[in-house]
Amino acid sequence: MDAAAHSLVDLFLRYLREEKRVSEHTAVNYLRDLARFTNFCCSKEIGSWADVQPGEVRQYVSARHKDRISSKTIGRDLAALRSFYRFLLKGNHVAANPVLHIRAPKAPKRLPKVLDVDQMSGMLDAVADSVYEIRDLAMFELFYLSGLRLSELVKLDLSDVDFAAGFLLVRFGKGGKQRQVPIGSSAIVAVNCWLNVRPDCNESSLFISFSGRRLTQRTVQLRLSRWGKKIGLEEHVHPHMLRHSFASHLLESSQDIRAVQELLGHSSVATTQIYTHLDFQHLAKIYDSAHPRSRKSQENAENSPK
Hints:
The protein is built from 14 helices and three strands. It is mainly α. Among the domains are: 3-90, DNA polymerase, domain 1; 117-240, Orthogonal Bundle (hpI Integrase, Chain A).
């Protein structure tokens, strides 16, 4: 890059500080991102910002990706470059923005960690030491046995529980959708234990706070984290982990993805496929034993009595 190119970077940073009033931290981040791209351009013998083409920006993104830089960081790099080129376009220093349609590589979808069956049993079978730990255990049972979202749990009212039918009405699912989910026998026991000690108040919510008000999502998160530490779980436990454990354990046992989709309240089965995961070895065993042209199924057929 020539001296004029470096001067334009300085001019841009002055614009950010004096006109956009960005923090010094933000300005330093922009400088670092632009300096990195400047070095890349120098390695390609690109002399000015106007000479940069979309193909070179894609090469830069590819190089960053090969260096195992996260998609989030690459996205931030591109955002800095887009802002810089918008500034250059406004000042007629370039004729086009070569970064305009360049996107960062898609980040792999990260599934939340799951607790195994033994961990879940240990967490739910632990003894409560107070009225509000009885409440907490009832909440945790519903997370795991009914696959509830955190937002769905805190919006439950007393009238949403049908003990006779063994169902729970989720009135405020994602997208405003309602659904019925089974409670499960241990969850029924846990909720009844809570209702037997629940303080009398006018609050319609199933789960209430120390002050007799509907619990907030943050309170539930803190109580679950506290419970996990109390019983000695090494990893941080959060509500979504229990919902994911519900889906994973149920799908591994039943292989009925449509049923799990309905229970989770997913509008598309594709979401359920992303959200849950199967034990691959278990799937491989099913494939080997069931597919008519798999090696093991053929062996079984050959060894069967004639």
